[in-house]
Amino acid sequence: MNEAEEFVEDIKSDPNFARLEKDIEAVKNDISHLSQQISDAVNALTQIANSQTRRGMRRARVQANALMSDASDRAGAVAGAAQDAASSVGDSIAEVVEERPLATVAIAMGIGFLIGVTWRR
Length: 121
Known about the structure:
This protein is mainly α. It is built from three helices and no strands. Helix 2 packs across helix 3 (101-120). The longest helix is centred in the middle third of the chain and has 85 residues, at 15-99.
């Protein structure tokens, strides 16, 4: 045996070396255990984040649907009001035509004359 091999044998036979090996093995086990705990914590946090994201998406979808429904209701109300106004104007014009047919014909002829004059130029 050469000196290096003897030196290694001396170190291995030292009781402190055996204790050091045990300590290193214990540290390795602790690191492995901590790694597993970190992995479990990350997985738990991922599940929580996914759950909260899904919950937020559901809330956003409900709010968007409510806004769309409200906008649709308002648009329907505006359309109904416009329809009522158009009907009211139509009724008013019909009443004026029935009450004053000659004046209505004269106004229509005047408007027609103005449009004709405008188009000639």
